[in-house]
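Internal tracking record. Fields below are filled automatically when a chain is submitted to the structure queue. Please do not edit lines marked as system-generated. If the sequence contains nonstandard residues, flag them in the REMARKS field before resubmitting.
Queue: standard
Priority: normal
Entity type: single polypeptide chain
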Amino acid sequence: MVEIPDSLRSLFTATVEQRGDKYVIEVPSSEIENAAAVPGQTYRVAVLPHEETSSTDETESRREPQLDREPGPPSPPVDEGEVRDVVIESVGDQGDGIAKVERGYVVIVPGARPGDEPTVEIEQVKENVAFASVLNDSR
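SYSTEM-GENERATED OUTPUT FOLLOWS
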């Protein structure tokens, strides 16, 4: 089984295509729209083999997520009341610590400073940002 790090920002399936003398993997526009990737930035990419399935199975597996998925951006990767460890990466305009979790989702932590690695409780969740309080700070 492949171990997936907590820093994973995006996971999608794509086909390697040849374009002239280069090989290209297209990033879905939803990854840009949801800030999982930013044009012009450099990212580490993992290439994992895709198990071959029959064409009927493959068609079904492609349809199911689309039927089950609600339109619009994905839901926030945190829930109110959730406790998790974060790393404070920077300080916002109002002096609060900023951590990023899955897909680059921002968690604002008042009183935290860059380099802090606190255990926080998520108190309020919005579409693109969450607010948390420090439970335990391991500086």
